[in-house]
Model the fold of this input.
Amino acid sequence: MIKIKKKKILLLPGDGIGPEVIAEVKKIINWYNQKKNLNFEIDEDLVGGCSYDKHGTPLTDEVFYKALESAVIMLGAVGGPKWDTVEFAKKPERALLKLRKELKLFANLRPAICFKQLVEASTLKPEIVSGLNIMIVRELTGGIYFGEPRGIKPIDNGERRGTNTHTYTSSEIIRVARIAFDLAKKRSNKVTSCEKSNVMEAGQLWKEEVQLLHDNEYSEVELNHMLADNCAMQLLRNPKQFDVIVTDNLFGDILSDQASMLTGSLGLLPSASLGAKNKDGEMRAMYEPIHGSAPDITGKGIANPIASILSFAMALKYSFNNDKESENLEQAVQAVLDDGFRTIDIMSKGKKEVSTSQMGDAIISKLK
Ligand code: IPM
Ligand code: MG
Done:
């Protein structure tokens, strides 16, 4: 059993714009070390395509062990067209999936918040999205992403068959639903659970277990069940009806991408992947922007670091239990947006266009 070092933060910038945005997070961590003596211990290493290029694997054992002893992993992004032809088991994305699975990071929190300064950036009408604040809780270590059997095999008639298995156990459903109910209690007290119970047994089990947990322990929280396809539609029709959405790995992947676009820019949205607490109350966690590696803008110094910086704000809150500094950082981001600073992805007329590092510096200058 590898012990978690309470103050250890492992930076895994990864590929594409990952290194550019994580560099800004590093500046912020250093600020906290210098100005607030928070004593974070930083380490940094390779993950994804860059690791494959150097070591022939997207995640070396050495980095994996570093991850195991870290309280927090700050991940940038993995993947890109350069590695499209790499064999499946060595694709950059496998590193991410291995970290999620082996560190047991079963609860993925993906907030979709529409910043008041950026209401116009959404493709939806302002009245539909202004004030939007949804939390998607995506199950992250089960379902069709990991179910067995899986694979591609030749079959008798000369064709091949690709197989993946969608499977959930009661405990996998209950532990993630519990996270959703606990979060809802601190928000607007409403959970929408999404599945396809009309066509899948695993979906029916999902619905039953969430309902049972609700009736036994969380009856004060409002619970609604919704079919995942309907949820996709409702997110566009009337997204403000949602508070917390809890759903499985695959639906969560899709619905969170959809929800993110309601907010105008992928460049702003953080995420947290949390494990279970051990008997000492410690847990492993990984934080990452949801925007991905963005190969088209890599190396230009124009990527928006806000999603990564807000991911660190989530780390302050969920891993370091420091709500005060988490809010401080979130407010610094707001203040910079109020001042009109914009990276190109959120640029609009009359605002000041800034680079990745200028945005990072501006946010630091607002920290109290
Ligand atoms: C995400 C991504 C990943 C996923 C990929 C990169 C493996 O789309 O985090 O949403 O499918 O989970
Ligand atoms: Mg995705």
Summary: The first strand starts at residue 5 and ends at 14. The chain has a mean pLDDT of 96. The chain has twelve helices and 14 strands.
